Amino acid sequence: MAGKPPDAASLHEAALNHMARYAATEASLARVLARRVERWGQSQENAESEEIARAMRRAKAEIPGVLARLKELGVLNDEAFAASRAKRLTREGKSHRATLAHLVAKGVKSPSLPEDPERELAAACAYLRRRRAGPFGDAPEQKILAAMARGGFAQSTARRAMALEREEAETLIKSLSTTLEF
After folding, report:
1. H or E stretch at 153
2. pTM for the whole thing?
3. Which domain of life is it from (predicted)?
4. 2 — pLDDT class (breaks 50, 70, 90)
5. CA atoms of 118 and 90, how far apart (whole Å)
6. CA 118, CA 123: separation in Å to the nearest integer?
7. Which ranges in 22-140 belong to alpha helices (H)?
C-alpha cells in the first residue's frame, strides 16, 4: 500500500492544523477528519480495496478519540465557538433567529443565546446601515421591512429600527462593540 493510513497521531495533527486556521465545531471538525480519511482511501491505487476499506474504518474509528482529546485540551469548544460567532453575526446585523440557524447549521448541538430586545434592535440598526436604509438611507420602506422579516427580525423590531434617528441608531450599533456578552 502506498502512503501510510491515517492514525490517531496524524489525525490529531491534522485537526490542530485545521483549528490553527479556522474556527470549528466538534461536528465540523469530525467532517474535516472524515474527508481526510476518504481522500487517503481514494489516493490508494495499487492496494486491495478490502485492505483500504479496513484501514479507513480503523482511521474513522479514531476520530471520536481525537475529538475528545482536543476537547480535553480546550482546543475544541463548541460554546466558545457559539459565543464568538454570535457576537460577530450580531455586529454584522443578523437577527437572533438567523444567528441561531447559523449556529445549528455549523453543528452546535443546542446553542443557548439569551434573547435581548435591545441587542436585537441594535442588530437591526446594523442591518439597516449595511443596506443603507431607514435612518441610513432612503430605500423603500416596504421592501426593507420584507427583507428584514426574511432575515429573522420581528416586525415590531424592524419598525422601531426604521423609525430611529441616525444618531440613535449609530449609538445602538456602537453599543454592540462594547457591551456584547453571550
Report:
1. none
2. 0.81
3. Bacteria
4. low
5. 12
6. 9
7. 26-43, 49-73, 78-91, 96-105, 117-131
Whole-number Cα distances in Å, 179 to 59, 119, 158, 173, 182: 44, 9, 21, 10, 10
Q: How far is CA 13 from CA 10, 17, 20, 171, in A?
A: 5, 6, 11, 45
What letter does residue 107 receive in the DSSP assignment? T
User: Grid coordinates standing for 65?
Assistant: 478519540
Angle at 77 between CA 107 and CA 55, to 5 degrees: 70
The answer to whether the CB of 165 falls within 8 A of the CB of 135 is: yes
Q: Which amino acid is at 13?
A: E
Quick one: CA torsion of 44, 45, 51, 52, rounded to 10 degrees? 30
For residue 54, which amino acid is it? R
Query: 8, 10, 142: which is closest to 69 by C-alpha?
Result: 8
